[in-house]
Amino acid sequence: LGSHNRLTILFYAALNAFRGFKNSNGNGSKFAMVKTLYKNAISALRSSAELSSSSFSNKVYLLEAEMLAFERKHQKAKAAYAAAITSSESVGYVHEHGLACELA
């Protein structure tokens, strides 16, 4: 599995974890799973964004926004969603732009 594919899988796994937790009556073990997936994904994506900002910054912003919303830090989440929207739009990632708009 190539590293770009691995990063994409980490990104979507973390997003799905947030969705699953929000759509259930989350408990402590589910919260721990979400945090673990987020930490793994955000760490890998931040490292990659340093090397290729245009490919990964929007993903970092979107995961950060989801975590901030998860933690009920709504003003910071709004700013991170806006950054994800702008970043994905500026590089022409139409699907990720739409996803960021939908999640915001």
Please tag this protein with its features:
104 residues, mainly alpha, 5 helices, globular
If you had to describe this structure to a student in words, what would you say it looks like?
Helix 1 (3-22) packs parallel to helix 3 and helix 4 (74-90) packs antiparallel against helix 5. The N and C termini lie far apart (31 Å). This protein is mainly α and 104 residues long. The protein is built from 5 helices and no strands.
Give the structural class. mainly alpha
- Which residues form runs of ≥5 with pLDDT under 50? none
Number of H- or I-type helical stretches: 5
- Work out the strand percent: under 5%
The total strand number stands at 0
Overall mean pLDDT stands at 89
Shape: globular
Helix content: over 70%
Sketch the topology as an H/E string, one letter per element: HHHHH
Q: What is the end-to-end distance? A: 31 Å
What value does the Rg take, in angstroms? 13 Å
Major sheet size, sense and barrel closure: none
Quick gist of this model?
The chain is an all-alpha fold and 104 residues long. The protein has helices at residues 3-22, 28-51, 53-70, 74-90, 94-103. 86% of the residues lie in helices and 0% in strands.
Chain-wise SSE layout:
Layout: H1 3-22, H2 28-51, H3 53-70, H4 74-90, H5 94-103
Helix pairs in contact: 1-2, 1-3, 2-3, 3-4, 3-5, 4-5
